[in-house]
Amino acid sequence: MSIRIGFIGVGGIAQDHIRVLMKMEDTKIVSVFDLNADNARRAAEATGAEVMDSADQVLDKQRIDLVFICTPQFARGDLEVVAARRGIPFFVEKPLGVDAEVVRQKEQIIRETGIIHAVGYVLRYYDTVQQAKQYLQGRRPHLIQGIRIGGSHPAKWWKQLDMSGGHLVDTATHQVDMIRYLAGEIREVQAAFGRVSFDQMEPESTIPDAGAINFLMDSGAVGSLTETCLSPFYGGSDIKFFGPDFYVHLSQNGSHLTLIDNEQSLSVTAQSDPGYEQCRTLVDAVKSGNQSSILCDYADALQTLKVTLAANRSSAEQAGLSL
Questions:
Q1: What's the order of all strands across the beta sheet hosting 143-149?
Q2: Burial of 33 (0-12, 13-18, 19+ CB in 10 A)
Q3: Is the pLDDT of residue 108 over 80?
Q4: Which residues, other chains included, contact 110 with Cβ-Cβ below 8 Å and sequence gap of 6+?
């Protein structure tokens, strides 16, 4: 059985999905749509798909078995809901949006349809992350530290807070999601964001250039995450879990794991391609009609979004303390 796939949005991140899907013998990309006609044409030439005139034309249950929704979060509308109501399994990129209440309403509809779906928190599919998750079962870290340092997205919309949510919502969301996935839910968030460089370099932008977030977990653990999207000479992502008798460190976006306790000290590098594993898992779920193997669904991704939006709100409402 070959799974027929449609794409809505075929920009940068969609190309990663197309790359791995084309390695699979049981998938065929048949429909593509992008507001950028050149992007759509190039994707069609690379895959043999037909260019559609609209996103709605892609969402044809007679034509496709699965759709990848890779449009920016501000421009997604209700595509996931339309797909779900038409009985089309879907994959949607993170983050789910920039308004938690809008996303919550969509999540309820999607859940009620029972449609097979997945959200693009791809780092969960690293074998190293799975190893860390298994190790941390039954263990309670008391301190969690995370960083996400890197560069800015080139698109103009990305630097508008009401369209992207900023670097935390759009990109460092991966680190927030991994913290939740491995250590449980975040109960409280406090955050401060700054605009030192963007004010000088790109005053028309509205996103912060750096942020510092403190959080409290349901477990009682405390943690922090620092992030910036303006670091041309250094980039990195790390999450460290400190316990009374263990230390777990995931670096390089989760692809490298260090684990130390009283009985072992190991350092391993991921052997899996998480992008391939994510798509393979979804295709298999569509074929079997079973959602259980998918590592992140819409409801789960909504919780990650709520944490990042709460951090934005905390910074905006922070009165500050003069010393």
A1: 186-194, 210-217, 222-228, 143-149, 236-242, 246-251, 256-261, 265-269
A2: buried
A3: yes
A4: 80, 81, 84, 117, 298
Question: How far is residue 202 CA from its own chain's centroid?
Answer: 26
User: In angstroms, what CA-CA distances link 209 with 10, 112, 167, 203, 222?
Assistant: 27, 39, 8, 12, 24
How far is residue 217's CA from residue 222's CA, in Å, rounded to a whole number? 6
- Across the range 27-33, mean pLDDT stands at 98
Question: 48-80 burial by CB neighbour count: b if 16+ within 10 A, else e?
Answer: ebbbbeebeebbeeeebbbbbbbbbbbebeebb
pLDDT over 60 (residue 319): no
* β-strands 27-33, 3-8 pairing: parallel
- Looking at the chain, which runs of residues are DSSP E strands? 3-8, 27-33, 50-51, 66-69, 90-92, 117-119, 143-149, 186-194, 210-217, 222-228, 236-242, 246-251, 256-261, 265-269
The whole-number average pLDDT for the span 147-168 is 96
Report how far residue 76's alpha carbon sits from residue 72's, in angstroms, rounded to the nearest whole number: 6
Residue 323: is its pLDDT beyond 80?
no
Q: Decide: 119 and 296 in contact? Cβ < 8 Å.
A: yes
CATH fold of the domain at 3-120+275-295: Rossmann fold (3.40.50)
76-97 per-position pLDDT tens digit = 999 999 999 999 999 999 999 9
| Domain residue spans of the chain | 3-120+275-295, 123-272+307-317
- The reply to whether 3-120+275-295 and 123-272+307-317 are identical in fold is no
123-272+307-317: CATH homologous superfamily? Dihydrodipicolinate Reductase; domain 2 (3.30.360.10)
- 114-149 exposure pattern, b = at least 16 Cβ within 10 A, e = fewer: ebbbbbbbbbbbbbbbbbbbebbeeeebeebbbbbb
Cβ neighbourhood burial of 230 (10 Å; 0-12, 13-18, 19+) = middle
